[in-house]
Design goal:
mainly alpha; globular; single chain; 13 helices; two-stranded antiparallel sheet; DNA polymerase, domain 1
Length: 348
Amino acid sequence: MPVRVPPKRRPTAPHRPRLPAWVGQVPGPDDPLPDQVQQFLDYLRVQRNRPLTTVRAYRYDLAKFVAFARVRAPGSGLCDGLDSAVLRRYQIELAEALPHPRTRARALVALRQFLRYAYDEGWIAAELSRRVVVPRYIVGDPHPIATEMVPRLLAALPREGMRDLRDRALVHFLISSGCRISEACALDRGDIRPDGFRVLGKGGKHRTVFLTDDAWAAVHEYLVARGQDPSPALFISVAHPDMPGGRVLPDNRLTTDGARRALAALRHRFAHDPQSFRLIEGLRSPHAARHTAATTLLEATDGDVRLVQEVLGHATLETLRVYTEITDRRKRAAYARLGDYLREVGEG
């Protein structure tokens, strides 16, 4: 009697969670939002003096809650019927749409701030901000460039044309000042001085930063080569679409995305030579330069975390803990190499 072979089953596709219905209806950057959200954003921008980048981030995150509210109760106001159960439902659906806890935490922080403002304005009867639970997440270690590699990297930066001089000045500026890329792009030429200058950081707070002599020389060389033009920005875009006919327009200003693309192009130029690429390999983003500034300054000041806190504009010393751990690891590794060296000398 022939043996029946069961038919082969087709491999099933991995199960993908179904996204909430409101995910496809999130308002875009040019779409109107409810008046209550717009009032809150105006409050952040005017009364709290939040940077425009922060206001845009809050708008982006609150747009998700707007979409959720419109699908939940079409035709109703944003704050109508808002209670703990509704907020719990939103947090569950947001976890389905944004599985990464760090991204979800940012969206929930924006909602929490909006609910506090809504309660103060009398739009909701109860203080519901505490009903929004921000998920915990592990902050990844920063990846700064090794201190001994920094001088070699800065010396290897090309300076053949305007683009090279601008990129060289930008890298020098970020590693020396520890500024965020948004802070650097917001500066004008008249803002910087050799004896220190003020930048507007997170939370609308100003702080004074400085440049090393080499960084100031790199920025000065770039500005001299650039000459006089109608743009007040310190760093401008040299992309062809932004410079029609090679002319600098009054509104030409390097954006944060443009700075990231510039560093990516710089890394690509180094890629042909493995030894040269090793110098710039750690400069994966403008923020890596800020991490590098933190660790090098900690090492140069023998671990003066208070000074580094002021330079970087961090709200608390706890934020610097990861940098001190990195410098401690480097010191332990150096002492381990010292021990190996002494043993080799003794055996010799």
